[in-house]
Amino acid sequence: MKRRNFARRPGCSVEATLDLIDGKWKGVILYHLQGGTQRFGELRRLMPGITQRMLTKQLRALEEDKLVIRKVYAEVPPRVEYCLSELGESLRPVIDILKAWGESHQARLSCAPPPVVVKKPKRAA
User: Fold this and answer.
1) Residue 30 near residue 84, CB atoms below 8 Å
2) All structural domains of the chain with their residue ranges
3) What is the CATH topology of the domain spanning 12-101?
4) pLDDT tens per residue across span 38-51
5) Engineered SS bond to 6: which of 12, 14, 38, 79, CB 3.0-4.6 Å?
């Protein structure tokens, strides 16, 4: 995944960090890998809302960004495991703070009233 150059802009460190963990699933994957090495199927079970294609895509991006290490075992069937790299481990405090914030605000976030849908009346012919 091609990364943008944030070197000469104010706030670039925040943008660069968010660029690494952007999207719906990367932070969740990093959170689950904090518990230790996981196989692809284990990650898939931990995140029932993600498709196989999306999990593969996100794991590849995290691997490309050096946040995750992918280890392939020469077995039949092949076994693949994922774990956090040293750089990925350095994100642990960030992920933990995101988790804590989410827990403390979860009731407010999940109890938000649903959007009001206004239906147009049918016109008489």
Assistant:
1) yes
2) 12-101
3) Arc Repressor Mutant, subunit A (1.10.10)
4) 999 999 999 999 99
5) 12
In degrees, rounded to 5, the angle at the alpha carbon of residue 77 between the alpha carbons of residues 72 and 81 is: 30
Cβ-contact 80, 69 below 8 angstroms: no
Residues with pLDDT less than 70, the chain:
1-11, 110-121, 124-125
**For residue 40, what are the contacts with CB-CB under 8 A and spacing of at least 6?**
55, 56, 59, 80, 82
C-alpha angle with apex 120: 119 to 125, nearest 5 degrees?
140
pLDDT at 5: 56
Cβ pair 67, 87 in contact under 8 A: yes
pLDDT of res. 112: 55
The 8 Å CB, 24+ separation contacts for 41-44 are: 43/82
Task: Give strand ranges (E) for the chain.
Answer: 38-39, 68-73, 79-84
Cis omega (within 30 of 0) on the bond before 93?
A: no
Evaluate the CA torsion angle 110, 97, 12, 65 in order and state its sign: negative
